[in-house]
Amino acid sequence: MADSTREEKLKRINESIRAFPDFPTKGILFRDICPILKDPKSLTAVIDLFEEYVRQNHQDVELIVGLDARGFLFGPLLAQRLGIGFALVRKRGKLPGPAVSVAYDLEYGKAEAEIQEDAVAPGQKVLVIDDLLATGGTLNAACALMKKQQANVMGCLVVIEIKDLHGADKIKPHSVFSLVQY
Predict the structure, then answer these.
(1) 172 by DSSP, 3-state: which?
(2) In angstroms, how far is the first alpha carbon of the chain from the final one?
(3) Which residue numbers are catalytic?
């Protein structure tokens, strides 16, 4: 029997997220999405809820942009459901051909994100997707890349948001839709 209500889907997703204390370093409580991917009903619940949100709030979205690497897991499934394309934002040096990049700060250093030059058209309406929003550095970099490409970021989608880290503040003025908050 398929999950029929939003509450049942959210419950299934919550129950599928595992917590690992002190990973990858002491003091971090890592939220593991692997059980979501292992369970077809949980994965379907994630995509169902994202699809419902997008259809209600962003009917004119033209492209889903996914972050390296877990945004690649949810983004193509959502894009396929919506009948639109998917574009990748990767770590610098991982994409062939001409690419555009932005530098951003990490908790422990600096990094660069990039997208192929022709992946997003000026004025194109995009939603950015990832598995988790913590401090907001990576999502903010993806939004900066979209601005550099003159795309219109309609918002960001994440499975998990760690509210205490205030990552959504870093992404403003863009909105964040999260399925689960901790």
Answers:
(1) coil
(2) 29
(3) 70, 107
